[in-house]
Design goal:
Layout lengths: L1 H20 L9 H4 L18 E9 L12 E2 L9 E2 L4 E8 L6 E7 L6 H12 L7 E8 L5 E2 L16 H20 L2 E11 L4 E3 L9 E9 L6 E6 L11 E2 L3 H12 L4 E6 L6 E3 L2 H6 L4 H18 L4 E2 L4 E11 L3 H8 L7 E3 L6 E12 L4 E5 L3 E2 L2 H4 L28 E5 L8 E2 L17 E2 L5 E2 L10 H15 L2
Parallel strand pairs: 3-12, 5-6, 11-13, 19-21, 20-22
Antiparallel strand pairs: 1-4, 1-8, 2-7, 4-5, 8-10, 8-15, 9-14, 10-11, 16-18, 17-18, 18-19, 23-24
Helix pairs in contact: 3-4, 5-7
């Protein structure tokens, strides 16, 4: 058996090395080209207040209306799951924010989808920037809500594993819709006051992989326009949007009903949701019942969203923020150790920007990290290009004894150590989707078929998330590059 496993492992590695060494040049780009439409933000952070806050909101639906005559695939659970109906619409929702210090505003846009490659996000940025309607901006950020009932926007959920599940015309429509939402947010801008509050949410989340750790905070921003029209709410919370289970109905999952609750209860309000650090896997409390289909998933999902909306509206510890907005972004490269994902890129199932390393059989993936501060050191947000395991944010790692590799974690700083702001949180799946971003001491691959079959450690724990990651070094690179980014802004 040992010989068979060793032979299989060697054969797979040899095959992958041959494939990777023969990937055509047209599949590759440079980091410079990959960064072309990434606005880097502020070179140095300043804490001199601007004149006032200006904010705008824009939204547009990208739900296709021809799903009954054309095949689209649901993304998030099983592949080859064609759309059979629509429960609720998919939206691009965008917020423009400016402190009026003269260096331009910032846009944050959330898409109701499982994830978007940075290459596709750059297409949205390009459309918005080249429209001539956006005005002066210093940063454009596009996140995914991570609904598991949206239409395939990555390519991984098609009819066949080697064939992309993305529909080109749908993707083009989505990009135009998202760019229009970004532009509308700028064009709808108004002057007003900006507030932040947060509350601990008890008994609504679960972590289905050790260590059991996650951010229980729901963070809420509220912009109140001077003309007394509806407020704009921005909500951040960490949970997989997967509560419908293996449905064939298009839905934005619980974020749609969180937003619905806010917009119905707060007269004239608009709202947008951004997910948090959801690796681990962070989901809703009853997620195992959803997995087993032993619960009314639709009712549970809607109620979960409604409850979060009620909690968001009940936040009572608001702080008014001074008009100070600092943001900075940086392009990064992570090793493409997951040969299955690189093979998917070769087969045009995925379209992530990749580049060559010095070793011809090695590939890197180009991505980015970002860091945001609001007010006078009141709020910090880490913009992370994937599903971050919360321990990389809060430092609550498994011990040497309890980790799969039986060694201690080795990170000089985690994200929460990198800032002295009063309140801090993660915006996940922001400007890319690199999959799960894990702690290296608990990163375990199947010996015979790494990144294909999941591993099981000596404590009988499954290691599924590793198969949907770029590799064990990604977490450290993201931490190191984020720390470097923050230090460079001082």
């Amino acid at each position: 058996m040992k010989f068979k496993e060793s032979f299989t492992k060697t054969a797979v590695k040899t095959l992958m090395d041959v494939i990777l060494s023969t990937i055509p040049k047209k599949c590759f780009t440079t980091q410079e080209n990959s960064n072309k439409f990434m606005l880097t933000g502020d070179e140095k952070f300043s804490y001199v207040p601007g004149k006032k806050w200006t904010c705008g909101f824009g939204k547009a639906s990208f739900t296709p209306d021809d799903y009954d005559s054309k095949t689209y695939y649901i993304a998030g659970y099983d592949s080859n799951n064609p759309v059979k109906g629509v429960l609720d619409n998919l939206y691009a929702r965008a917020v423009y924010l400016d402190d009026n210090r003269g260096d331009g505003g910032v846009v944050f846009c959330a898409l109701d989808c499982v994830g978007m490659s940075r290459k596709d996000i750059n297409d949205i940025r390009k459309l918005a920037l080249e429209s001539g309607r956006l005005g002066k901006v210093k940063s454009i950020n596009i996140s995914s809500t991570h609904t598991h009932a949206g239409i395939d926007t990555q390519g991984l959920w098609g009819e066949k594993i080697y064939k992309s599940g993305k529909d080109e015309s749908f993707m083009n429509s989505l990009k135009k819709t998202a760019a229009q939402a970004v532009i509308s947010a700028f064009e709808n801008r108004k002057d007003g006051r900006f507030f932040m509050g947060h509350t601990v949410v008890e008994d609504m989340q679960a972590d289905v992989r050790t260590p059991e750790t996650y951010d229980k905070n729901l963070t809420r921003f509220r912009f109140s326009p001077n003309d007394k029209t509806g407020d704009i709410y921005i909500v951040n919370f960490a949970s997989h949007a997967e509560l419908l289970g293996t449905t064939s109905l298009v839905s934005a999952d619980f974020p749609a009903y969180l937003i619905k609750e806010i917009e119905e209860k707060a007269s004239g309000a608009d709202a947008v949701f951004f997910n948090g650090a959801i690796g681990g896997m962070i989901s809703a409390k009853e997620i195992k019942k959803v997995y087993r289909d032993s619960i009314d998933c639709e009712a549970y999902m809607k109620d979960f969203g409604k409850q979060l909306g009620e909690i968001a509206l009940s936040v009572s510890n608001e702080t008014e923020l001074m008009p100070i907005l600092n943001i900075k972004s940086k392009g990064i490269a992570v090793p493409g150790d997951n040969t299955v994902l690189i093979l998917a890129r070769y087969l045009k199932v995925l379209n992530n920007d990749i580049g060559r390393t010095k070793k011809r059989s090695k590939v890197c993936i180009y991505s980015e990290v970002g860091y945001l501060e609001l007010g006078d050191k009141d709020v910090a947000a880490f913009l992370i290009p994937g599903e971050l395991f919360p321990e990389l944010y809060n430092g609550e790692f498994l011990s040497e004894k309890d980790s799969a590799n039986h060694r201690p974690s080795d990170y000089p700083k985690v994200l929460s150590d990198m800032t002295d702001c009063k309140h801090k949180f993660v915006i996940g799946l922001c400007n890319d989707e690199l999959g799960y971003i894990l702690a290296e001491n608990d990163f375990l691959l199947n010996e015979a078929l790494p990144y294909i079959n999941k591993a099981t450690d000596d404590m009988d724990r499954d290691h599924y998330e590793e198969t949907n990651s770029t590799g064990p070094a990604t977490g450290k690179i993201i931490l190191d590059e984020t720390e470097d980014l923050i230090e460079s802004a001082k």
